[in-house]
Design brief:
Number of strands: 4
Number of domains: 2
Structural class: alpha+beta
Radius of gyration: 35 Å
Strand order of the largest sheet: 1-4
Shape: elongated
Mean pLDDT: 81
Distance between the termini: 110 Å
Low-confidence stretches: none
Order of helices and strands: HHEEEE
Strand content: 15-25%
Number of helices: 2
């Protein structure tokens, strides 16, 4: 005949708070590792693509910028717009000035 064996009852862990803290710490460490890897990969990519290469040789090779022509402004006649919605009527007074490339 089979004899029954007594099993010890599963004791509730008194370190439940410590387990949560460990998981939280591990999660934060994992997030910091992912962020660090992302920053490192971005820096590596930009450095090898030439975006971050601001050496004196590159600056000497750059051509001076062409002088910009004086801007031409053309003011439009001010006008009034009536805006209606559920709350009532509002009036908008608009004055626009355009910046043009040339006189034509």
């Amino acid at each position: 005949m089979a004899t029954a064996t007594k099993r010890a009852p599963i004791a509730s862990s008194s370190k439940g708070g410590a387990g949560r803290f460990g998981k939280l710490l591990l999660g934060l460490l994992l997030v910091a590792l992912v962020i660090g890897a992302s920053v490192a990969a971005t820096f590596y990519f930009f450095q090898h693509s030439g975006v971050l290469a601001n050496t004196s040789e590159n600056m000497a090779e750059a051509r001076p910028a062409a002088p910009l022509p004086a801007p031409i402004f053309a003011p439009l006649e001010p006008f009034t717009v009536t805006l209606r919605d559920d709350r009532g009527t509002r009036i908008l007074y608009v004055a626009i000035t355009l910046r043009l490339v040339d006189d034509a």
